[in-house]
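Session log. Operator J.P. requested a structure for one protein chain; no other inputs attached. Running the standard single-chain path with C-alpha cell output.
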Amino acid sequence: MLFLAVGTAGLFTEVLERRHYGWSLLIVLGAALLAASVLQWWWRAHGPGRLRSVTPFVAVRPADGLETAGGEWDDVALNLWRIRAIVRDRPGSLAAVCEALAALGANIVGLQVHPLADGVLDEFLVDVPPEVSGDALAAAVSAAGADVSNIDRAVRDDLTDAPARALTLAARLAAGDAGLTIALHDLFGQCSVTWDPREQVEASCVGTMMTLLDPGGGTLRVSREELDFTPTEFARARALVGLCAELRRGRVLDL
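Structure written below.
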C-alpha cells in the first residue's frame, strides 16, 4: 500500500507539471471527494439502517412486563420484596449479595443506603418470580455474607424514589394541599400516625416508633410493624416537621 501511494503521488505530480489543466483537475477531484462525503453522511442519516425512533424508557425486564413500553409499572407482573441487610464494608461484598439474588431470578429495582451508628444498612427492593419465598431470599443474602435485619413484602408505591417523594410532600405542604399527618403517612407508606395532646421535650426515634413535636402543639407518633425506622428516615420526618413549623410562622413564601 505504501509503494502504491508513493507511485500514485509521483504520477499525479508529473501530470501537473506537463499539463496546463492540472489545477482544474485538482478542483474537480476535490469536488468529487466533497460530494462523496456528503452522500455518505446522507446515507448514514437517512438510509435503511437508521434507528427511526427512540423510546424514552428502557424496560428492565420487558419479557416479564415489569415495565411497559410507555414507562408505566405493571402491577400484575410485580412480586416485590424489601430486604434490609447490613453488608460488610469490604470490596466485593455488595456484588456477592447481588449475585446471590440474581441466582434466584431476582431483579433489583431499588436500592437505598441508610447510615447507622455502627455501620451501613442496605435496603434492596427486588422483584422475584412467584415461586421464590421470603425465606429463600433471606437464606441467599445470608449465604452471601450479609446480616439480614428484615425482609417483608413491598408494594408498588415503594418504587418511588424516597428523596423525590419527600420533595413532593414538601411542595404539597407549602401549597396547603396536605397536612403534616397526611404528609408523614405518605412519606412512610404503611404506617400509623397518631396525635397526642401531651407535649414531649424532644423528638425521638426508637425501633418502630417515632415521636415528633407537632408545630401546632402536642406530639405526633409514627409507628409501623416490624420495620425499624432508620436515622435517615427520622431526619426526613424532622425536616417535614421543620418545614411545617416555618410555614405556620409565615417564613416560607415560595418553595
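Operator note: The radius of gyration is 31 Å.
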